[in-house]
Amino acid sequence: MEQTELIQIGGAGPAGLAAAITLARAGRRVLVHEAQSEVGHRFDGDFQGLENWSTQQDALELLREIGITTEFATSPCDRGYAFDARGERYEVAGSKTLFYMVERGPGPETLDTALLEQARGLGVEVRFNSRLDSLEGPGILAAGPRAADAIAVGYHFETAMEDGFWVILDDELAPQGYAYLLVMNGRGTVKSCMFSGFKQEHLYVQRTVVAFQRLVGLEMVNPRPHGGAGNFHIPARAVIGVHPVVGEEAGFQDFLWGFGMRYAILSGLLAARSLLEGKDYDLLWRRELWPPMWSSMVNRAIFAMLGNKGYRWILQKNRARSWDMHRVFHGLYQPWPIKRLLLPWARLRYRSQRRDESCDHVNCTCVWCRHGDHRIAGTEKACGS
Ligand SMILES: Cc1cc2nc3c(=O)[nH]c(=O)nc-3n(C[C@H](O)[C@H](O)[C@H](O)COP(=O)(O)OP(=O)(O)OC[C@H]3O[C@@H](n4cnc5c(N)ncnc54)[C@H](O)[C@@H]3O)c2cc1C
Questions:
Q1: Distance 112 CA to ligand 1 centre (A)
Q2: Whole-prediction pTM value?
Q3: How far apart are CA 243 and CA 139, in angstroms?
Q4: Residue 358: what pLDDT?
């Protein structure tokens, strides 16, 4: 590839922008196409957790080390509360920050805006309202999720509540997933993150809100519905034609809980390096991303079998033994050889999650379904595409 040749990227999410930043830092000409009119459009002020447990190295330090900005607002979370289905409360605490709460969307201090500003500062052209439908010449595909393997649905709101995070493990609220509440600086998000039962998404959201009102006195001012989908998939190859595919477009995600931002950024970095150094992208992501991903797939298969009794049993163990949750989560994501033995079983369990991709709703606003010709909300893919 010529040094001066233009590199095009489809999608200005964390994956596409991390790739653009890495390429621009190496002096390449980069054009990012973004289908929406702004960055982070599908997140619209959402709060998310940048997980800090999968590596010993701190997540923000890691970003700085790989040349990605950390000039966005963060709230380090090392202590919060979990509830079981009976409403019993358990402290969840780590000796280190468990995750950094960050804001997503086009706002002033969000992760997306910080990445955009860094990219532009390095000379990257970001073209909004520009959908990339085909790609000639060198480039990277970074268009976000293709399917809904999990969904997170709920509300954004303003609140007088104190900052913090709360989780409920109850399949009646979030089947095979978790209900969560995040509050930062007078704003919050409450969601049911479910891995099955999508057809009852509205019911689960309603139950989630009621449960948080009862358990922690959730107060929502000006609640606005919000939801999105996640694509979880370990591809055989993450290259289409000659173009690396990054982030959730490739299926790179944390199968256990959906903490996909780190995968998005790291895969963007690796794809850029593969172009810069002429290396095989499939080799690079398999070395870096495959171990934690298959490990999280095994975690997911086990988690999906636990049910309410299993969740309660684990929470009680945590309380009895005063677990350091940072250590516990870190251990969960290590590809121990013994765990590797469970991978074939996990693959079988995970594969058959969703066969029926239609919903029963009229004029639906589902964040997941793939029927008819409407679009999957939160992604720009036409249903069935
Ligand atoms: C509700 C919700 C909560 C989440 N919470 C967390 C969390 O707490 N922690 C965490 O780590 N992860 C979380 N995730 C996952 C995380 O948001 C994603 O893994 C991450 O954003 C993926 O980044 P990406 O760049 O691959 O895709 P995206 O962020 O989806 O970006 C893709 C971009 O490509 C654009 N695009 C699409 N098609 C085209 C096209 N043809 N041409 C040009 N542009 C196109 C889209 O408009 C979009 O801007 C959550 C996801 C959801 C939905």
A1: 10
A2: 0.93
A3: 6
A4: 59
